[in-house]
Amino acid sequence: MSAMTTMPLREWTVDDLDDLPDDGLRYELVDGVLLVSAAPSDTHQLALTNLVVLMATACPLPMRTLVAPVDVRLSSTRQLQPDLTVFPALDLTSVRPRALPLLVVEVLSPSTRVVDRTLRRQVFQDAGIPSYWLVDPFEPSLTVLELVDGAYVEVAVVTGEQRHDATVPFPVQIVPADLVR
User: Fold this and answer.
1) Which residues face 23 on adjacent strands?
2) Is the pLDDT of residue 4 over 50?
3) Assigned CATH topology for domain 40-180
4) Where are the domains of the chain?
5) 108-130 burial string, b = 16+ CB within 10 Å, else e?
6) Is 114:134 a contact under the CB 8 Å cutoff?
7) Pairwise CA distance, residues 138 & 129, whole Å
8) Which string of b and e fits 65-91 if b means at least 16 CB within 10 Å?
9) What is the pTM of this model?
10) Distance between CA 128 and CA 139 in Å, rounded?
């Protein structure tokens, strides 16, 4: 017999997330609403792994590149776990990074594509996170958004073998097709 976890209908806070089971699901929070998503596909993970290696290698100290799950607490009712996050200098003794990220990256999945392009984009923009990247591993592409006067502006879209020479938050070259090889 298997056990079933039930979640009461109510407004959630980030403190409630600490009490949820460690069951392989991703638990996030937007305006008191619990978002639950399953483990990503192998294609998603390949692209993310290759991007993490690339970013971590190029990331200068004291910045740090971290891979999910890393809680990004934006308020008492907003917490997300981007696939990849670049932070300024971190207090590595703390349980969760407390600084606002310089960059958040989402690797698109068929089940999260719409949420990543709309809801997450809005939440990260509202929080004032300077850069938001979207990586599509299924049709290899990179969309780069940067915060300008409080709103994300698309500053680059590269596909396939095209190269993006990022300068924010640090210099790094990204070829979308390389992320899925």
Assistant:
1) none
2) no
3) tt1808, chain A (3.90.1570)
4) 40-180
5) bbeebeebbeebbbebbeebebb
6) no
7) 26
8) bbbbebbbbbeebbbbbbbbbbbeeee
9) 0.82
10) 29
